[in-house]
Amino acid sequence: MNTGVLDELVSALRCLPSVGPKSAQRMAFHLLQRDRAGADRLARALGDALTRLHNCARCNTFTELEVCERCSSPRRDASQLCVVETPADMLMMEQTHSYSGLYFCLMGRIAPLEGVGPKELRLDRLLERAADPAVREVILATNFTNEGEATAHYLGEMLRARGLAVTRIARGLPVGGELEHTDIGTIAQALSERRPA
Amino acid sequence: MNTGVLDELVSALRCLPSVGPKSAQRMAFHLLQRDRAGADRLARALGDALTRLHNCARCNTFTELEVCERCSSPRRDASQLCVVETPADMLMMEQTHSYSGLYFCLMGRIAPLEGVGPKELRLDRLLERAADPAVREVILATNFTNEGEATAHYLGEMLRARGLAVTRIARGLPVGGELEHTDIGTIAQALSERRPA
Ligand SMILES: [Zn+2]
Ligand SMILES: [Zn+2]
């Protein structure tokens, strides 16, 4: 006896990660009964984001431009290229204020169990980016999870085979830890203690 | 260095209940990188729900009609009026298949700590609905949480003062329990064991 429109909203909310049927129902109820302005804002924010955001041609993060502001900035050190898994990880790196190089955002990691291999990650774009003669060092800053480590290992082999100097941020993070959930100081330390990969 | 559009999406996602800054960031990333179709569907579902859904003039639940299908149905027993907190609770009651009366959905409960009193809940609409001469019994099916109990107590006093027969579903639910998280059988039992309130 839910109406179709309400059912559809509850279903659509389930496209959000880790939102099950009960949560989706609670969210729909909250939005419709308590926060219609918020629901309207969310609908418009989604529409805007879909229309205007795409992947930066250089670093692969989300941007409204063809090449993002960071990649275009003359103040960044183009000799260093730091590889991260997600835009959130990139933000964490920036907040350490101990890195002024450029980035490449994988938008994921190698995860064989989920069917994500080198091809699905489109690592050819990273190779192309790293082939820029300005790049002197590639810093691998994937997570220290099993998948992040496997990704770093794979990238290390791949990039060294092309004659690039490759380093890995130090294991200052706890085993199984993720950048996104680590304090800035620990990330800064891990960055300063990076070692050859 | 997030773009404005991305920041706005992350902020807007925080209007969802129990979504903090990290979850919002993860959701935005997921939608933009992995499920653009889902994001588009969600944006449209929100828009449709906002445009088309409002509160039923009789039972106060969400509907696209002036009076919802259930309230208009000749097959429902108009002598019984069951009061629930949310549309989700109403669905749970329906799934017991042991109730064929009508409903009134409070869309909340009395919660003094959150500034929700009888006035904020607009209990005048319930009084008006219960004043329908067809109504012979009002069944209170608010949750057995402290707030749900307080609400039932308040409603019991208020409705009895107007000469209505008021019952409360039986405490078959565990103390502190919520309808939404209870199995159908227990709810059915609690319904059949309702007692004078
Ligand atoms: Zn860029
Ligand atoms: Zn109705």
From TrEMBL, chains A, B:
GO biological process, one term: DNA recombination
Alphabetized UniProt keyword annotations: DNA damage, DNA recombination, DNA repair, Metal-binding, Zinc, Zinc-finger
Keyword DNA repair: yes
Zinc finger (C4-type): 56-71
SUPFAM superfamilies registered for this protein in UniProt: Recombination protein RecR
GO MF entry, a single one: zinc ion binding
Cross-referenced PANTHER family: RECOMBINATION PROTEIN RECR (PTHR30446:SF0)
Protein name, UniProt field: Recombination protein RecR
Similarity comment text for this entry: Belongs to the RecR family.
Domain named Toprim: residues: 79-174
Species annotation: Methyloversatilis universalis (strain ATCC BAA-1314 / DSM 25237 / JCM 13912 / CCUG 52030 / FAM5)
Function as written in the Swiss-Prot or TrEMBL entry: May play a role in DNA repair. It seems to be involved in an RecBC-independent recombinational process of DNA repair. It may act with RecF and RecO.
